[in-house]
């Protein structure tokens, strides 16, 4: 490979041509060139390239109808195929819906000649690295990471969501229906990240379905970002937990990339992944428990290194312990490391908790999108170990329930809740949205404005808390399985107050529909009757000034607007 500082003009031109060919930048598609309505191709396990279907004009091998819960149309330079091209490739692959997760992390070259790295590192699997540094021996060490830090650095690009939303709005209605937009441009260490989330939902005239992929721990990435300001499992985690709690209020799930182990294993005790305890603590946090977390890459398997010892058993236990946890099966690099029999055993224990994904990065053709699927669909692969019913769940049904469901929840949130928060979101002095108080007001608004949706939401909240109660009977403090039985589903409720009373009766400490386990603020409010009365007052009623620690207070907003 040519050295960075010795590129001739002709060599640079060749790189430009290769880059443009890779991303097909010279042949933009038009709306009329791409069919938006999904027409599935009949699946045939014995199909070959000679048995082309009407939806596979290049003679590709047909796939089962599936959904892709994890794909990145653009890479670390915001370059990649258009959404139209993504739909075209989805048609070729029998993909009904897919999540568009635009990478919101940009790479900056620190080298003297930036032209080469800016082009080369956005093509294919080099990600944010110079191709010569892309490791072939599957190992990392501190010296290599220090060398990388001298050549590139990363920063959060919060504009990625607006760029993707603008492109989405140019599509036809049929084409839009195929895509689930994800919000990715959030700085996880920013105490106002939850404000940014709501602002993106309010300002973009598009339906969002999911937040993520967001990254707490990822091999080299965490070394190339400014570590002092990032959220980490072991420090500065509070802003992230507040963000996760707000995501739950919108009804969307969050896809989380958090490696279960470090890429540098020196000093790590064998059989004890570096981030296992941190993830257990995070998932058990009261702010997180009401948000569906989709843990990427089969529970945080990383690109460099093996599957940790006992990972399959640990993941099975965590799925028993945390009812809000789901797992995605994305990334061909991970799929090739997994034991199909062990993965199948975990999936069969929790068939409604897994979602298929490709994790293709700026894919240039349909074959790239098929790589992960092809590994699982091999003659001795994972799909052959599962029943058709379970396979249908991980390929389609779970996606539609969780991600498509998140889209509908977020629409209701935007329709009924955000208008009452407009003034607050524009207030530069606002510093905390108080999600638990917001939940109370939100439930009352849904009950008043959309009773049918409130009833649906109340059933989901009730079932979630029953599942959490069941989990306590199945799992001990260490995550080992225990014997127990479910007490069944209680009758649905019809009002916010009834919902709170029912959940309180489940004998879960300090638990209501509007407060989480071990919530310090909830306990404080219970000790202050005056403050508790203010919190539960209906937003539309005049209220007394709110007491503060100094004895003074500000009057709460009259009318239906939200003001903490």
Describe the structure concisely.
With about 575 residues, the chain is an alpha/beta fold.
Tell me about this structure.
- Helices cover 41% and strands 9% of the residues.
- The protein has helices spanning 9-23, 83-92, 114-120, 142-151, 160-168, 173-177, 193-203, 221-224, 238-250, 276-283, 296-300, 311-321, 332-335, 340-349, 366-376, 388-417, 422-425, 435-449, 451-474, 496-504, 520-526, 529-536, and strands at 66-71, 95-100, 105-109, 152-156, 179-183, 208-217, 254-258, 293-295, 325-328, 354-355.
- The chain is an alpha/beta fold and 564 residues long.
- It is globular.
- The protein is built from 22 helices and 10 strands.
- Strand 5, helix 7 (193-203) and strand 6 (208-217) form a beta-alpha-beta unit.
- The strands form 2 sheets. Strands 1-2-5-6-7-8-9-10 form an 8-stranded parallel sheet, with helices on both faces. The chain has a two-stranded antiparallel sheet with strand order 3-4.
